[in-house]
Amino acid sequence: MEFKVTPIRNGTVIDHINCGQALNVLRILKINEYNVESTVSVLMHVPSKKMGWKDVVKVEDRELDRNTVDKIALIAPKATIDIIRDFSVAEKSNVMLSERVVGLVRCGNPNCITNKNEPVSPEFDVDNHDPPILRCIYCDRILDNITENLI
Ligand SMILES: Nc1ncnc2c1ncn2[C@@H]1O[C@H](COP(=O)(O)OP(=O)(O)OP(=O)(O)O)[C@@H](O)[C@H]1O
Ligand SMILES: [Mg+2]
Ligand SMILES: [Zn+2]
Fold first, then answer.
1. Nearest Cα residue to 63 out of 106, 1, 11, 98
2. Domains 11-94 and 100-149 share a fold
């Protein structure tokens, strides 16, 4: 196996990220210059047999919760989540969106009930998984820019 970056002992590799989405994955992980506490490797524009080009993010000493994985599915529907334990891949899974996306993204329609200070969580039907197409169950509008509306 060839390594372009230092192998991690324990942590998570988010592989097969759509090219160009690595920095948005870091946003979802809430990793920034002020709070990074473990080694994070970001590979952009890596050749991939499966998808031509891809991005990869590797985070030491962290496993991802369900909400975080579901948000990644919204911007990188082909992503695989590899849990690394003691330097090897212990678990591998594909991100998967359920039929309904609840509380992960805001509706883009300012007049939607979910943007009116009512106690209503934004909720979307998943019309398509890859690329993800979300339709608000309240105002029926398709969400144009998922990345900009992530909660
Ligand atoms: N200890 C480690 N530290 C950092 N990255 C690792 C480590 N072990 C594996 N990886 C990375 O995790 C990903 C999955 O590893 P694996 O060996 O399953 O690759 P693969 O056979 O190409 O899998 P896939 O079919 O999912 O592409 C690869 O991107 C690999 O570089
Ligand atoms: Mg591979
Ligand atoms: Zn709406």
1. 11
2. no
Structural domain 100-149, CATH architecture: Roll (2.30)
What ligand is nearest to the CA atom of residue 94?
Answer: 1
Pocket probe for ligand 1: among 8, 13, 81, 83, the residue whose CB has the most ligand atoms within 8 Å is 13
* 92 alpha carbon, closest ligand: 1
Q: Residue 100 corresponds to which amino acid?
A: R
pTM of the predicted structure, to 2 decimals: 0.93
56 lines ligand 1 (CB under 6 A): yes
Question: pLDDT tens, 39-68?
Answer: 999 999 999 998 999 999 999 999 999 999
pLDDT tens-place string over residues 92-132: 999 998 899 999 999 999 999 999 999 999 999 999 999 99
Nearest residue to 122 via CA among 64, 71, 78: 71
Residue nearest to atom 26 of ligand 1 (CA): 80
> Could you say which architecture CATH assigns to the domain 11-94?
2-Layer Sandwich (3.30)
